[in-house]
Design a protein that fits this description.
7-stranded mixed sheet, alpha/beta, 11 helices, 363 residues, Dihydrodipicolinate Reductase, domain 2, 34% helix, Rossmann fold
Amino acid sequence: MKKTRVALLGAGFVANIHIESYHRFVPEAEVVAVFSRSQERAEAFAGEHGIPRFFTGLEEAINDSDCEVVDVCLPNFLHARAVLAAAAAGKHVIIEKPLCMNLEEADSMIAACKENNVKLMYAEELCFAPKYERVRKMVNEGAVGSIFQMRQCEKHSGPHSDWFYNVDQSGGGALMDMGCHAFGWFKWMLGRDVKPKSVFATMSRILHKERTLGEDNSLAVVEFEGGAIGLAENSWAKHGGMDDRIEIYGTGGVVFADLFMGNSAITYSEKGYGYAMEKAASTQGWTFAVFEEVFNQGYPHELRHFIECVSEDKEPVSTGEDGREVLELMMAAYESARTGCKVALPFRTDAKKPIDLWISGAK
């Protein structure tokens, strides 16, 4: 079987999830190189995962690794640079969320990939998570009637890497980090033809006031054409490990699902043990010991789909245009949090970072 050659850009938390997914679930792909700005980290990651080559130069990793696909698992501020370099080299792109830092970057990335006839595949794993996909298919069968309200929550006590707290590298706080999941999932549930009409959001700094200028708690309400409402709750201020759940309310029923509590063994331990779930600070006392965490979150499914899109020249279900629409929603949410008013869509801004729309009024 001819394998699709992948260069993995990044050697951090998400890159580890991607390499596990490739090795265990995507035999059609071969990771031929890894990039990190740290030589020590790049070399260690390559050695640990059996990757033949490592690079500390971004453009060199793209141009000299003999890859067909570039998988971008880098801090947000490097996304546009990586995608533009990959497009210029004729490489297809898998890009982790969020798409980039601003709408100007998004437009240039989409245009470059189209001009060079390469695919820009936006990695929103909630569109591939098996439990959430089961929910979507039931809804499409008419199980709950017409959707009038959705809720998606992702909450924990803070990110795994320091760069998330630096708004110059991340572009924002909890909403930028996780609200993109909610907004992408709302669109996935309703369909691309159903457009958002407005966004209202509120944000605050609660737990990490000394560490970041970004918000660590946010709530956003999106109104869609046809009357459906989506509620996105995101937090870096919630203790006890990851909470990721959805709710769907329809004229003929409801659906509740979650990716962590409902995929775990409820455990009590006096001593504690090695690992319970993402972001859990302790394993003593009562805990939720998750199983097949990466699989349940949808990472293997999205990566396998993207590799298939490249090898069979298919259109991906999640594209750069989808990522741009999500980014536009996030920009509008930050503007709403600044003004205290509902913001209409479409929304256009020249802001270089979403957080710039809120930070001047942050408390």
